[in-house]
Automatic annotation (TrEMBL):
This is ABC transporter, ATP-binding protein. Residues 5-223 form the ABC transporter domain. It comes from Companilactobacillus futsaii JCM 17355. The keyword Transport applies. Keywords: ATP-binding, Nucleotide-binding, Transport. InterPro entries: AAA+_ATPase (IPR003593), ABC_transporter-like_ATP-bd (IPR003439), ABC_transporter-like_CS (IPR017871), ABC_transporter_ATP-binding (IPR050763), Guanylate_kin-like_dom (IPR008144), P-loop_NTPase (IPR027417).
Amino acid sequence: MAVVLNVEHLQKSYRKKTILKDINFQINDSSIVALIGANGAGKTTLINTILKLTPKDTGKVQFSVDQWKQITGVMMQDNLVLNRINVEEIINLTRSYFQDPLSYENLIRISGLKEVENTFVSQLSGGQKRRLSFALALAGDPKILFLDEPTVGMDSIARNDFWKTVASLKQNGKSIFITSHYLKELENVADHFLILQNKNIAFDGSIEQLRKISGKVLVEFDSKLSCKTFTSFSSIISINQTNHHFQIITNDANELLSKLNPFLKAISNLSVNQSSLDTLLLNYQEKNND
Ligand SMILES: Nc1ncnc2c1ncn2[C@@H]1O[C@H](COP(=O)(O)OP(=O)(O)OP(=O)(O)O)[C@@H](O)[C@H]1O
């Protein structure tokens, strides 16, 4: 795997107020990295600083090539406000900036905006503007794509198409750096998570690693075995028995399931309910709050 972006000791403040203290992380090719954190944590500021839309105080931001603008695509939270330019014109104008752009036909297909290609950008609906912003971000066939709250305002069909496109971009070796408060959507697509908290990257890893740190798993089953059979197992947080129904909360589902394995013949209706990314983030934030 090759590193496409390296960020070291990045610091950013707005008028003496420190927003980002000491940010360090890397992005590899063929990966989807999700930046998550509370409102105001500094996610947009981090993207803006990486892309030099706002100056950093100190630190290093290094892309894999010097001509970094040619390999980056950007979809920020704010949509374009342009009055006298239509969809086709803005797509082609953006394409003209790049050495090796995607074709217009490809971009209009990805955005699903063929029917409104002659409409002024200012007359598009909110969701159509988001789709157009996505097409513009892809215009240069970027190696690394920055997406800040991309699906806000999109309907469910557009969202579905959007995530499918993102997943296929990754398959083609692209890297996607994404922020979103729709954690359920991120949970399905991202393979790496960065939690921005207390002005730093407080967590950098996979969802499995996050589960180990702050996850609780509910394992339920029916059994006529005695409760004592299970109470000695390690990694159990609590155990609740109602008649022959057991509810066990653990922080290590694999460990618990391997302990249950010898008893499987005496167990039925086994289910394992992992914490959602929402819950994992909340647990993590509570534990690590300053
Ligand atoms: N141009 C600016 N001048 C001064 N302060 C700013 C500016 N932009 C952002 N801030 C402040 O920086 C902090 C981080 O804001 P930022 O928009 O980066 O957070 P965020 O994590 O993207 O939030 P959200 O999830 O709500 O989009 C906030 O306290 C915000 O008020």
